[in-house]
Design brief:
heterodimer; A: 274 residues; mainly alpha; elongated; B: 314 residues; Rossmann fold; Alpha-Beta Plaits; 7-stranded mixed beta sheet; 4-stranded antiparallel beta sheet; 11 helices; 14 strands
């Protein structure tokens, strides 16, 4: 360096920490219109489809057989539309990483925060918080709407405060981030928007669509451990007749799936070039 | 200060960077030159810890990039100005970045103003021209007021006014004592901007020296002489050990002798000269000459001997 060149004192700044990464990721999620479109559409579909199915049930109720009427469970009919909204909430999770890979912005993210595990943790927390709140609001509104429609047709209803309903509504609220986080992890592994959305939706739908075709032993011992069944064991195990896990095992299942997904994503993130 | 030490990067059987070593010093603008595919972007990604070297090590301010506690406050980078999500406004884009780096968000409007994007701060960046995106990328690099700055092809897409602005900005940043590494394939631009150049070809170091030294060397020390008695001068030059590289009527291109030597020969023989000019190659010509050799190398051939400056800057 020549004598006339200015020297610059390098101040060693402190590590901004996980909270900075969390704030940054929250800003990312909440500054794109896609998030609001998916959230809004998911909410409307869940509530709307639940109301619509309740309406269809109400108008045909008098034609139902005695046995069908006896087997009717108002709790299940209070959340029946959730499947439509959940698909879109899952997409919010997958896009949190997939959109950064498709645009190439992931490199800017990792330049700002080279500790990639911290970026993953921040995204998981942001998606968990966002879809948790979204899922809770959606579930409560959907349930109350569904019961109101059923009530209007003088059909049996279960109030939100009753234990059967509480377990389902609280369970669905708490587990709302489960599939969006799986989608987020798959997006890291596949680095593709289409690939990650497709694979997480297959994971979401395939077991319940095709599981019934499996032999009984497989249904009881394998199907029950698939992602959608471990969640449903917690939220619907007490009202639905499908093969489900006991609650403690279901909790183990949920934790295991999250651990596998987040762990695999962590390994991929830290070992691969960005 | 950036220290690249014996770095090799392989993708399968392809060697993108081959035992590359160089140092980028503070206080000057260092140009990073090479033909397309030479490994410039790969090297920059490795400096930033995005790609892992197959072997070798890179230190920024004495540490690996990922060990810097607050990297945005020490290092700023513009890699690919288009690699951002288009559905955020310029201000929103810089806001998440500032938050990630632990930088006060008040800095966002400062850098937007600095790069001339204040008026479009609330426009979606997807609608930006390439030149505007480059300015946004430069704003992002400057967010943390870092002492080390890397720019990969920053003048791409800029209009002439933008190019002059970038050139002035880089020189000012260097004068403030910062370390500036700028890659480009526009040699003419580097000639105006860079004080020092690192030239690579096929992932290998070709040259690492001050710009003026590189251009002087590449000219091969030729001297242009114009004289009404050129025909008489020609044998005298050849007798003195010079060679005539080219001659048109009245004008000779001499190599092997310096301009003063040619002038003295002419004076001793009473020959009038109309022109006596040492030829200084453009950086572009120097670059072509250097990389022509590297392009001729094929896998398995001997590595080219890097040309390094033997002055006080080593």
């Amino acid at each position: 360096m020549t004598a006339h060149t200015a020297t610059r004192e390098q101040v060693i700044a402190r590590d901004p920490g996980l909270s900075a990464t969390f704030r940054s990721e929250w800003t990312k999620l909440t500054t794109v219109r896609t998030t609001y479109i998916l959230a809004g559409l998911g909410f409307l579909l869940s509530v709307g489809m639940t109301a619509l199915i309740a309406l269809a049930t109400g108008t045909t109720w008098e034609d139902w057989s005695e046995t069908d009427q006896a087997n009717f469970d108002p709790v299940v009919f209070g959340i029946v539309g959730s499947i439509f909204g959940s698909c879109l909430f899952i997409v919010i999770g997958a896009l949190a990483f997939a959109s950064e890979y498709s645009s190439g912005m992931i490199r800017l993210t990792f330049t700002a925060t080279p500790k990639r595990g911290r970026v993953l943790a921040a995204k998981v927390l942001v998606i968990a918080l966002f879809t948790g709140i979204l899922g809770t609001v959606t579930t409560v509104v959907m349930y109350v709407t569904g019961q109101a429609v059923l009530g209007a047709y003088d059909m049996p209803t279960v109030g939100l405060g009753e234990s059967d309903a509480l377990r389902t509504v609280i369970g669905m609220s708490v587990t709302a981030p489960f599939f969006p986080i799986l989608g987020l992890a798959l997006a890291v592994l596949l680095r593709s928007t289409a690939g990650s959305i497709t694979s997480v939706l297959v994971l979401y739908f395939a077991p319940s669509m095709f599981g019934g075709l499996l032999p009984r032993w497989w249904q009881d011992n394998v199907l029950t451990w698939t992602p959608s069944y471990v969640v449903d064991s917690l939220t619907l195990g007490h009202v639905d007749s499908s093969p489900y896990l006991d609650e403690p095992l279901a909790v183990v299942g949920v934790v295991a799936w999250l651990t596998i997904a987040i762990g695999a994503a962590y390994l991929a993130l830290t070992r691969r070039d960005a | 200060m950036i220290e690249v030490n014996e770095v090799t990067k392989r993708y399968g059987n392809t060697v993108a960077v081959d035992r590359l070593s160089f140092v980028v010093k503070p206080g000057i603008v260092t140009g990073f030159l090479g033909p397309n595919g030479a490994g410039k972007s790969t090297t920059m990604r490795m400096i930033l810890g995005l790609d892992h070297p197959t072997s070798g090590s890179i230190k920024v301010n004495g540490r690996a990039y990922r060990d810097i506690p607050a990297p945005m406050r020490e290092v700023g980078a513009l890699l690919d100005a288009r690699a951002i999500q288009g559905n955020r406004t310029a201000r929103q884009h810089l806001r998440w970045l500032a938050q990630a780096g632990g930088i006060p968000t008040s800095r966002v409007d400062e850098v937007l103003h600095l790069v001339g994007l204040a008026e479009v701060a609330n426009r979606k960046v997807g609608g930006f021209s390439l030149g505007m995106s480059q300015r946004l990328g430069i704003a992002a690099a400057l967010l943390g007021d870092p002492g080390v700055l890397l720019f990969d092809e920053p003048v791409n897409g800029l209009d002439p006014e933008g190019i002059v602005w970038v050139r002035t900005l880089f020189k000012r940043l260097a004068a403030e004592g910062r370390t500036i590494l700028v890659s480009s394939h526009l040699m003419s631009e580097m000639q105006e901007t860079a004080d020092h150049v690192v030239v690579i070809g096929r992932g290998r170091l070709i040259a690492d020296m001050p710009v003026h030294e590189l251009t002087a060397r590449a000219s091969g020390g030729q001297v242009r002489v114009t004289s009404p008695r050129a025909a008489d001068l020609k044998p005298l030059i050849e007798n003195a050990g010079g060679t005539i590289a080219a001659s048109t009527d009245g004008s000779l291109m001499v190599s092997g002798l310096t301009a003063p030597q040619v002038g003295e020969i002419a004076a001793a023989n009473g020959i009038v000269l109309h022109e006596l000019t040492p030829q200084r190659a453009t950086l572009e010509a120097a670059f072509m000459e250097l990389t022509r050799d590297s392009v001729e190398y094929h896998a398995g051939d001997q590595a080219p001997q890097p040309v390094t400056s033997n002055g006080g800057n080593a």
